[in-house]
Amino acid sequence: MRNFVSADEAVKIVRSGDHIHLSSVASVPHALIAALVRRADAGEVDDLHFHHFHTEGPAPYSEERYAGIFFDQGFFVGPNVRANVNAGWADYLPVHLGESQKLYRSGALPCDVAMVQVSLPDENGMVSLGTSVDCSIAAVESAKHAIAVVNPNVPFAYGDLISIDSFEYLVKDDTPLVTAAFAEPTPVERQIGRNCAELVPDGACIQMGIGALPNALAACLEDHRDLGLHTEMFADGILRLIRKGVINGARKKVDRGKVVASFLLGSNDVYSFIDHNPDVLMKDIKYTNDPWVIASNPGMIAINSATEVDLTGQISADSIGTRIFSGTGGQLDFVRGATMSEGGKSVTAFASRTNKGQSKIVDMLNPGAGVVTPRSDAHWIVTEYGAVDLYGKSLQERARLLISIAHPDDRERLEQSAYNRFGRHFLYVK
């Protein structure tokens, strides 16, 4: 094994103009970022480009004060960089998360330096990327130089491992991983959870994200049996179902009995759960988000969210008008995988209104909004007022169905918009 060096020594390998990959979410290599900031403050580097999934914690690489020195171009926009992205000091690189690894492996996006956090090595010199496998293995494989922060707080998760000899420099750090508190659902979210749960049969294989709405759904699945899990990420709500035996993977055809994910953000309880757990596989995003792999498990139920949906079924999820809110993510990866699965369903679930009382079911998307899931891929849409299936429905039929699950106070206005758009025949559509 190579000798350890300080973070300041390791980042001396970075040169002006380099593209840098960061391991993401709960496992950001903050020690290396801080060392790069010190080099930037000393005037030693400029024009550095950063790429990553959404990150937690301080993000100086996105800030105005480092304009011309750092430029963040993440694959997904988290709360810590959102304001800077929308102010133009940082940027968003649209990509399906399943293809993020392909950007590196194909050379479409250069990777000069990969900076990741890893677990302590096992007896064979293999390390785990723990809570942030995502596209980090591809970055390490493709990078000219790779630096690993070896952190005993990174769980050793089975799945896709990497040799510690893959790294040019090793840095010690024992900073705890970032955690996220359990998000308690609102009454509206609990009702949405109940409506979604009715679409999930026993034996299904599920995918969903993290947050209050997925937690509400998880709570509504406690009486289900033999569920499987194949997902990008999971957190404490899902962990409760695993410990209750609701999720056991008994009916999966692929990775039977295994929990499969690519990255995590939750409590330390979640991180401890995956540590040396043979029932959990943390895999390259190339695998978890491959629609053909997703479709290989029958009864795949993909549950995602939206910022707004128009009356024809166009689903926006990465932006609010021109304002970037998150990212394309893996939504379409799982939408298509679930719809190809035997007995599978793609579900888009959201509250009928925003916190400001604006309808999320709209006559047309806000100007500049990104279409993450095209209307041709839209199937089940769920709000607190019900669930409707758009598959096989015409535009006017879709409008009528979507209006039926909009907030009651918004339905008359939406009906008028549909009438103006489609003409008098819309009055007769049932």
Architecture overview:
With 430 residues, the protein is α/β, with parallel strands linked by helices. It folds into 2 domains: 7-172, Glutaconate Coenzyme A-transferase (3-Layer(aba) Sandwich), CATH 3.40.1080; 187-428, 3-Layer(aba) Sandwich (Glutaconate Coenzyme A-transferase), CATH 3.40.1080. It is 28% helix and 19% strand. It contains 14 helices and 24 strands. Strands 15-13-11-10-16-21-23-24 form an 8-stranded mixed β-sheet, with helices on both faces. Strands 4-3-2-1-5-7-9 form a 7-stranded parallel β-sheet. Strands 18-17-22 form a 3-stranded mixed β-sheet, covered by helices on one side. A hairpin with a 4-residue loop joins strand 17 (308-310) and strand 18 (315-316).
Radius of gyration: 22 Å
For the terminal residues, how far apart are their CA atoms?
69 Å
In the CATH scheme, what's the topology name of the largest domain? Glutaconate Coenzyme A-transferase
Q: Which bin fits the share of residues in helices?
A: 25-40%
Oligomer: single chain
| CATH homologous superfamily assignment of the largest domain | Acetyl-CoA hydrolase/transferase C-terminal domain
Characterize the largest beta sheet: strand count, sense, and whether it forms a barrel.
8 strands, mixed
- Count structural domains: 2
CATH architecture of the largest domain: 3-Layer(aba) Sandwich
In CATH's first tier, which class of the largest domain applies?
Alpha Beta
Largest sheet, spatial ordering of strands: 15-13-11-10-16-21-23-24
| SSE class | alpha/beta
Number of strands: 24
The low-confidence parts are: none
Q: What is the mean pLDDT? A: 96
Percent strand = 15-25%
